[in-house]
Write a structure and sequence with these properties.
Elements (H helix, E strand, L loop, with lengths): L1 H12 L2 E8 L2 E8 L14 E2 L4 H14 L27 H6 L18 H4 L19 H15 L3 H10 L8 E2 L27 E3 L1 H9 L15 E2 L3 E8 L2 E8 L4 E8 L6 H15 L13
Antiparallel strand pairs: 1-2, 1-9, 3-5, 4-5, 6-7, 7-8, 8-9
Length: 303
Amino acid sequence: MQASRAFDTLAQRNSAAAMTVVRDGNVVVARAAGTTIDGAPATSDSPMVVASVSKLLTALVIARLDRADSIDIDEPVPWADLGIAAHPGWDDVTARELLAHTSGMPVVRPAWFDGEIDCATFLPALVDRPPNPTRGRWTYSNGNYCALGILAERTTALALDQAVQQLLLDPLGLTGIRLTTTGQLPSDVEYRLDVSRLSRLGGAGSLIASTDDVGAVLAAVTADDLRVLRWPGVMVDQHGWGHTGTVDGARSCAWVLEEGRTVVTATVAGSSPSTGGGVCDLVVPAVAADLDLGTGPPLRSPP
């Protein structure tokens, strides 16, 4: 199978790797290589840093809150209720704009990894001036999902990982997704650069999750959820939709094919391929080919 060969490539090039494929609600591929922090063999249920695949889970929490009428993604973000003194220029920015990366949020890429303060402490410095002139155009910024994570926390009165647990995992009878701010557990696959460097990302990239759990959550996405999980906040290609994740020391891919019938998730502890998009380029076409869904590299948008 091409999917098995794709996983073997990931395993050979990194200290650890995991891959899960769910089809029709059943796990049909569950592979892992490497070890956990306590020295046990890694499994596809071993939690790993998933980088910006966190954004999919944050968006899904927002979708569930919108469906429950706890928030309205088309209404302005209640910055004051979030404990953030935003410039008045942000007063009419909506959660839908944050989801789509069209809010005009500053990018400041290197600064996300410059210290140990959390997302809620870091975000005010990004919204103390008016939105950038890029508002209305897709401009990828971690700040958008940092803000959405805070919105989820203040709406639910729970930490983001607890909101993920309550809204996404509890209905499936699962546990195990956590924030990097809580540190790593012996049963995790080690993130060798120290997870504290990811603390500012919040809902943009601070979740630790197994490929099994991410796969199960995405396999349970509903038509109502997809009214919120939309391009360009969610990436699309000829095979389906999903998200990639890239930070130094970790790469991840989560992709939904066949309108939800098939989900593929893959994460590595390491730096090969060079991006999470590269992981998707390897595993998504392989799974698609095994299922006779077509061949060729993913043509993602946004890239």
